[in-house]
Design brief:
single chain, 298 residues, alpha/beta, TIM Barrel, eight-stranded parallel β-barrel, three-stranded antiparallel β-sheet, 11 strands
Length: 298
């Protein structure tokens, strides 16, 4: 496996164009049990994934910036476990600094610098690892804030691992790729995240993506769901088909949210299912059934 390279708006591995199609964990501190070899193997064999996203919340309960040192060490050990499994399974793996309630990545920039300094040094020779430096900047976070943050984090990663792919979040919960396209960061081998929930977001967001792609901005769908954006509510299957067709047409790398048995529409596994592998259709939610079929045929 080689480090992924951005050329224009596409990703390449070993001089071959590649589209990552993976799934995202839910918060590692909430559902650590899914970071295990049997689960990864099941999704590789049955959903045909070639990548896995490790979503590490920052400010939420027991997040990296909210817990004590012992909690931080637990999360680092869990990330290490996930990376080790991904390497063994020949999967790419995203280490996701999952800001959400903290809204602005500058809120915890000092801790982010230390975190990315550690993990990029620890995995500097591991081409499987991708760094997602800010999940979903939101509320009053501006493009200038994201650039300020990125200009502090990216050099830290590049010092240790100059070839690693880095994914940068965009404003409005990683939707404003059009704004970033007009003023991208001055670094090589970056992608910019576009997040959507098909039962909420419409053609207007795809128009933003089309504009960004036309400007040469490499887009990376590091998280998407087929529920409403809240995570709950009815699935709009017609709107979902439009988005899934769009991912295929544009050859955008994508990671579905979320691998967990949480009682939410967006999660793949039914709440009563305690299994970690060998899932059947009876174990899946409606979301899980729909996505398992789509991924398997991708």
């Amino acid at each position: 496996m080689e480090f992924l390279k951005v050329r224009g708006t596409k990703l390449y591995s070993e001089n071959q164009e590649i589209v990552l199609h993976g799934v995202s964990s839910h918060g590692l501190s909430f559902y650590p049990e899914y970071v295990n070899e049997k689960t990864f193997t099941f999704f590789k064999d049955n959903w045909k994934i070639n990548a896995f996203r490790l979503a590490m919340y920052t400010e939420e309960e027991n997040g990296f910036c909210a817990g004590d040192l012992e909690n931080c060490l637990k999360l680092l050990n869990l990330i290490d476990k996930g990376v080790s499994i991904a390497v063994k399974e020949n999967l790419y793996v995203i280490i996701d600094w999952h800001i959400l309630s903290d809204s602005n990545p500058l809120t915890n920039v000092d801790k982010a610098i230390k975190f990315f300094g550690y993990v990029s040094g620890h995995y500097q020779n591991v081409p499987n690892v991708i760094y997602e430096i800010c999940n979903e900047p939101n509320k009053n976070c501006t493009l200038a804030d994201i650039k300020n943050y990125a200009n502090q984090i990216i050099p830290v990663i590049r010092k240790n691992s100059p070839e690693s792919l880095i994914v940068v979040g965009t404003t409005t919960w990683s939707q404003d790729v059009d704004k970033m396209a007009d003023s991208p960061l001055p670094y090589d081998n970056l992608c910019y995240s576009l997040h959507f929930y098909s039962s909420t977001h419409t053609k207007e967001l795809r128009d933003k993506a089309d504009y960004a792609l036309s400007k040469g901005l490499p887009i990376f769908v590091s998280e998407f769901g087929i529920s409403p954006a809240s995570g709950n509510g009815p699935i709009n299957y017609e709107a979902t088909k439009e988005w899934l067709d769009y991912l295929k047409e544009k050859k955008l790398s994508h990671f579905a949210w979320a691998l967990a048995n949480r009682d939410e529409t967006c999660c793949f596994i039914k709440p009563e299912c305690k299994k970690l592998t060998d899932f059947t259709l009876d174990d899946y939610t409606d979301c899980g059934k729909h996505l398992s079929d789509w991924y398997a045929k991708y």
